[in-house]
Amino acid sequence: MPATDRTIEVHGFALREIRELRGRTVTDLADALGVDRSYITHLEIGSKRRVSPELYHALCAELLVRDARALLAVAPVRQHASA
User: Fold this and answer.
1) pTM of the complete model beyond 0.90
2) Which end of the chain lies in a sparser environment, N or C, as judged by fewer CB atoms within 10 Å?
3) 9 in any annotated domain
4) CATH code assigned at 41
């Protein structure tokens, strides 16, 4: 099964910006999520891009992100109303 079927691609720059806005350090966020500090760093610089849905939702919760689309690397397709 391809990795894209069960993972979510994270926008690293958005992750870093939101983390810093919330006053969280890489170490603090990693500890709260139960992952290694280097994993968060890899996500932020883009050398790793995909996370499990569970980790994605935990990131959103830890960073107080109300709209889960804020950390997505690719925006979901919007449905346009027909004219």
Assistant:
1) no
2) C
3) yes
4) 1.10.260.40
